[in-house]
Amino acid sequence: MNSTQITLAVINAQQGDESAFDSLCRQLYRPSFLFSMKLCKQTDLAKDITQEAWAVVAKDIRKLKEPSVFKAWLFRVVYHKFIDAARKSRNIESFQSDKHEQATDMTSSNEQSIDLLKLINNLPDSERHCIYLFYLEQMSISDIALITGVAVGTVKSRLHRARAQLAIGLNE
Fold first, then answer.
1. Which CATH number do you get for residue 116?
2. pTM
3. Rounded mean pLDDT of 135-149?
4. By the 8 A CB rule, do 10 and 64 touch?
């Protein structure tokens, strides 16, 4: 589903078309869940955050004035639900405790990919989130700024710092 199809589906969903909303869910639920997983790194919590975010989307989709920014709006809702969950938790480090296990028999290209993922996961949260949204979700800098609630220049700075840290880590 390309951005034009998403926009049309949002407009139809805003007018009460349930099949259009179902189509949006089918196309964007998994990306929103994966973003939630990147944020909190706990499957059960990510499922809860994603479900709560989609409940907000279902309730407030008619209030969205610019249907063309639906995906950014959705990710912003997920981001805010994550922040709410982090505030409720007294120990934020618990969000980082669920680590993925790695297989021992990997090829060198897979090892490089794993090393890059390790480096990305070691970035500060704000930079890691920007890298994820920019490269993996292929969102624009302005959309990332909208999602994270910071200025466009701040997103550019975070991406620049993250790239520099990744380059240093890969050269070591």
1. 1.10.10.10
2. 0.71
3. 89
4. yes
